[in-house]
Amino acid sequence: MRERLEGVLERLVRASVFHRVVISVAALFAAVLIGGILVFVSGGFASCRAGLDVAGMTFCYNPMQVYYELFFGALGHPLEVGWQLTNGSLATTLQQMTLLIFAGLSVAVAFRAGLLNIGTQGQLVVGGLATAVTVVYAASIVPDGLIGTVVLIPLGVLAGALVGGFYGAIPGALKAYADANEVITTIMLNFIAVGITSTLLSWRFQDPNSNNSQTAPIPEYAEIPTVPVIGFAGRVDFSLLALAFAVALMIAIAWLFARTSFGYELRMSGTQPEAAAYGGVDEKKMTVASMTLSGALGGIAGAFWVLMVHGRWLENVPSIGFDGIAVSVLAGNGPIGVGAAAFLFGVLESGSSRVGTATDVPPELVGILTGLIILFVAMPEFFRMVGRRYVDVGSAEPVRADGGGSGADDGGENDA
What we know:
It is a multi-pass membrane protein. The protein is mostly helical. It has 2 domains: 1-61 and 363-416, no CATH class; 84-359, ABC transporter involved in vitamin B12 uptake, BtuC (Orthogonal Bundle). 69% of the residues lie in helices and 1% in strands. The protein contains 15 helices and 2 strands. It has helices at 2-14, 17-42, 63-72, 88-112, 120-138, 146-178, 182-205, 240-259, 261-271, 273-278, 283-310, 320-330, 335-358, 363-390, 409-415; strands at residues 52-54, 57-59. Strands 1-2 form a two-stranded antiparallel sheet. β1 and β2 (57-59) form a beta hairpin. α4 (88-112) runs parallel beside α8 (240-259) and α5 packs across α12 (320-330). The longest helix is centred in the middle third of the chain and has 33 residues, at 146-178. The protein is globular and about 70 Å long.
């Protein structure tokens, strides 16, 4: 039994990018099929005026309609007459995708270094507050208009990255110099982040003109602007410039992994720590550096949550950082794959609200459907990660001394 299990894990580890995509698509169809059956059966226990009568029972829910709203509703129903590319539903999908790219990259960087950063949510929270406070205070000394936009937006993103990076360096240093388990420390630091930011908000940064727990709003010219003519309307809280930055950062991280000595050392520390140590890689320094970079990406997610979505920092921060863990696992911890996984999560998030408004299916059942899809699609990559960590499958391709692969498969392994 164990040999058969190891054989399956070995095949998953050695699977090419094409085969992994085929497996994920097959898993998606399996999840849709099982979820459709669940929706149809659940409709037999619901009350409705009209439905499908089968053997004396009335089934209230139509699985086809549910999935139509879930997937096509997230895009604004592109098959219907009058569809526009800049519709609000698609903007919501891309907004979620943008934030999840940052969160997924944060988790992926740590995973590649052999570390489990469960604290992206906390890094996002402190980074978002740092962004809001920095922009609000800097706006009083920076001219408004175009100059303010050019200065304050990069300043806010930098503040989020620095504070998030510092908060990520804490568990990195504890891991490197005290051998503290990073899973425990990052989880605990999530709670500490909530407590610290809540205290700072009530002590110093609370908006005096609001009863809600929030900072003062940042100036409108400090919010990420929309693209004229081809962009989405400002009221939908999404900017193509933010998505472009997220994609550029995704490509930059992929390049960092594949083409720099730091990225090579980071990957080697995660996959072959003994070989990395033998090659002169400072394990402690790499641990702190990778967690710092991971935390900085989480802080950038918080910065864009403030600068693009709300225009202020709110105490109730959504679980973007925790969703980033699932995004990274689904992407196989590959920077380029993070974009596709984030888009799927964005579709499910936006489509779920469409299902709730267009059908009578309860939100709990919609949550089960989306959970099934995520579970089925992510499981092959999860077991592939397990196989790479615990099963000795050898190396299909030699590795050059400069960190590059010897064949075409290197690009797929690093980027997918």
